[in-house]
Amino acid sequence: MQMSNKSETGFTLIELVMVIVLIGIMSYGAASLFASRDAYSGFIAKDQLISSALLAQQVALGMSATPNPVSLSVGIDGSDQWAFVLTKVGEPAITVTQDPSGSSLVIDGVTITTGSSQLFTWDSNANLSSGNNHEVRFVGDTTYRVCFSSAGYAYESTVACP
What we know:
By secondary structure, the chain is α+β, with helices and mostly antiparallel strands. The protein has a single domain (38-157), classed as minor pseudopilin epsh domain (minor pseudopilin epsh fold, 3-Layer(bab) Sandwich), CATH 3.55.40. Helix content is 29%, strand content 29%. The chain is built from two helices and nine strands; from the N terminus they run H-H-E-E-E-E-E-E-E-E-E. The longest helix has 25 residues, at 38-62. The chain is elongated. The N and C termini lie far apart (87 Å). The model has no long low-confidence stretch (mean pLDDT 87).
């Protein structure tokens, strides 16, 4: 009886699958290195605007004895930054800015330019004083939409605001 001493070379199926999985994990992590800041600036600004509007509504509820106790100015400041300025009666303003990274700001269908803004005011019942709904869009690689309801709420929407 004769025995064969063949040595088999190559990769097993498990080894090949593991290499493919590792390459997939590494490519997922590396993809963020190639994403532009434009993709994130609108997302961050949307969250900051919703947070500022929520704070404005809470302040208005807390100051219910004062007519129009709080306002939020949304616009582009002199250094071309998106600016959200929260003003409470009798207090210094709180300003939050975000770099637009080439994106634009559109409020109720009007593109906002440097130095201009839109003022939203909450009344003592925490409703928007104007009584109207509003839409704020951050338009870049991706469009992010924030809706202001006449009841004073601010929320993200993927479709046109009512």
